[in-house]
Design a protein that fits this description.
mainly alpha, 2 domains, rod-shaped, 157 residues, two-stranded antiparallel ribbon, Arc Repressor Mutant, subunit A
Length: 157
C-alpha cells in the first residue's frame, strides 16, 4: 500500500497546484480586464489629443473679403462684411452719401466707442481694397465697386 499512498499524495499535490494555478489565472484575468479598461481610457484620451492638435494646425479661413468681380455674390463675405455692405447700400438707395466709420458703427448698432469705429474702419478698408466699397479721400465709405479703366483709354476732354 505504500505505492497507493505515494499516488494519493502526488494526486493531492497536483490538485493543490491546479487550484493555485486556477486562482492565479483568475487574478490575471481580473487584472487584464482592469488594464483593458485603463487602456481604452488612455486610447480615448490620445484620440482627443490628436484631434485637438489637428484642429489647431488646420488652416483657418481667412477673415478678409475676397476681391470683388462681376457676378460674385455677396454671400462669399462673412456676416460682418455683409452687414457693412448692406448698410451702405441701403444708405445709397436712400439718397444719402458716403459715411464715416463711426456712422457705420452706429448704423450697425455697435455704438460710438473708438474701438468699435476702428473695427468697422478696418473692415470697410478691406472691402474698399478688394473693390466691394469705395473709399473717399476724406476717409468716408460708400457702396459701389471701383470703376475698371478700359485698356488704352486716354483722358476724356
Amino acid at each position: 500500500m505504500i505505492e497507493g499512498c505515494a499516488v494519493a499524495s502526488v494526486l493531492g499535490m497536483l490538485e493543490e497546484r491546479e487550484a493555485a494555478a486556477g486562482v492565479r489565472v483568475e487574478g490575471l484575468r481580473e487584472e487584464a480586464s482592469r488594464l483593458a479598461e485603463v487602456l481604452e481610457a488612455a486610447e480615448i484620451e490620445l484620440d482627443r489629443r490628436v484631434i485637438a492638435r489637428e484642429e489647431l494646425v488646420k488652416p483657418w479661413p481667412c477673415p478678409s473679403p475676397r476681391p470683388w468681380r462681376d457676378g460674385l455674390p455677396v454671400t462669399v463675405l462673412t456676416a460682418d462684411y455683409q452687414r457693412i455692405l448692406s448698410m451702405l447700400e441701403e444708405r445709397r438707395s436712400a439718397g444719402k452719401g458716403p459715411a464715416k466709420a463711426k456712422e457705420i458703427a452706429v448704423g450697425l448698432g455697435l455704438g460710438t466707442t473708438p474701438a468699435k469705429a476702428e473695427g468697422v474702419r478696418s473692415k470697410a478698408r478691406r472691402l474698399a481694397e478688394r473693390g466691394w466699397l469705395l473709399q473717399e479721400t476724406s476717409g468716408m465709405f460708400s457702396a459701389g465697386q471701383r470703376p475698371v479703366a478700359a485698356p488704352d483709354a486716354g483722358p476724356s476732354s
